[in-house]
Amino acid sequence: MQNLKGKFPEELAEEFRQMGLPAYRGKQAFMRIYRHRATSIDDFSEFPKELREALAPAFRRLSMLERSDAPGGTEKFIFDYAPDNEKSSRFRSFESVWIVSKERRTACISSQSGCTLNCAFCATGTLPFSGNLEAWMIVDQVYELLHARPDETLTNIVFMGMGEPFHNYDNALKAAHLLNHPHGLALGARHITLSTAGVVPMIHRFIDEKQPFNLAISLNHPDPEQRGQVMDIDLKYPLEELIDAARRLNRELNRPVMFEYVMIPEKNMDAANLKRLIQITRRVNCKINLIPLNTNLQGWRRPTEEEAAEFQIALRNAGILAFNRGSPGREVDGACGMLAFQRLNAGKS
């Protein structure tokens, strides 16, 4: 067996059968990893010593390169791993964030090392794309954060770190189901959110499969003529196709969509774009997460607190549920759009 992690009990049971061992070892291994949060093979107390020794190479953990505290308790982590399927010894790195808010403790996790997209406001898109993360690597981020913050209770998981989850759909969805599994962490499906910049075919697949998780869509601009300047994916999947997919999710899954909207003064916060955004909300059952711009990649500026509040109030006056997500972790380059190893690279310079 090459890897104990990233597999459902049934998959593990089959692998143990192929090893000539009882199938029940699969459920035991799964629960030891995902319910009891084993940190080494030695924690598998129900396994005989000889079996633990044989399985030791198959118990993997991510390597933590760095952790950085921000005011208020939010913390950013940098991990890496060496891919099995590459002859190269090159490691891939990615970041996760433990976000602390008044009532929540949220694990923000990555699905790729780098990103396949290049959103104009996002520092991750400036990095070379190093590859998709396997399901176990996505899940292991959550467990490493839990090991690092043992006195806190996880309330939510968001696939909003590095990468486009729907360009790594199979691994991302398998990871979500592993985190939701009743014999593991058992976090409710409504506490797990997958985010996409707008990969329309995968949104339709998500709907076809009747996935139980929340879906967030990075909207960021309501004008079909201008969204492509902010979101390069719009050049492939135009805004109207994205809106149609969101409406289908409303109809067939009977569930609202969360639109994420990075507020960029002089770009998407003027009266005309506010009106367009309100018009979209009249067509889609949605909530809006407002996010102040955290980078200056294009020379764009961050909105003032007054500008952000005024924009939010205008949406709420129009009857729209709009929340200002703020910028937790900004001081350690851990806020939305900032994940690009800045602190790690700074430490090497």
Automatic annotation (TrEMBL):
Keyword Ion transport: no
GO annotation terms (biological process): rRNA base methylation; tRNA methylation
Transmembrane segments: none
Gene3D superfamilies named among the record's database cross-references: 1.10.150.530, Aldolase class I (3.20.20.70)
Main location: cytoplasm
Recorded GO MF terms: 4 iron, 4 sulfur cluster binding; metal ion binding; RNA methyltransferase activity
InterPro entries registered for this protein in UniProt: Aldolase_TIM, Methyltransferase_A, rRNA_lsu_MTrfase_RlmN/Cfr, rSAM, rSAM_sf
Keywords: 4Fe-4S, Cytoplasm, Disulfide bond, Iron, Iron-sulfur, Metal-binding, Methyltransferase, S-adenosyl-L-methionine, Transferase
Protein origin, superkingdom: Bacteria
Cofactor list: [4Fe-4S] cluster
Localisation per UniProt entry: Cytoplasm
Sequence ranges assigned to domain Radical SAM core in this UniProt record: 101-330
PROSITE patterns xref list: RADICAL_SAM
Pfam families registered for this protein in UniProt: Radical_SAM
GO cellular component terms attached to this protein's record: cytoplasm
Enzyme Commission no: 2.1.1.-
Family in the record: Belongs to the radical SAM superfamily. RlmN family.
Protein name: 23S rRNA m(2)A-2503 methyltransferase
Source organism (scientific name): Leptonema illini DSM 21528
Organism phylogeny: Bacteria, Pseudomonadati, Spirochaetota, Spirochaetia, Leptospirales
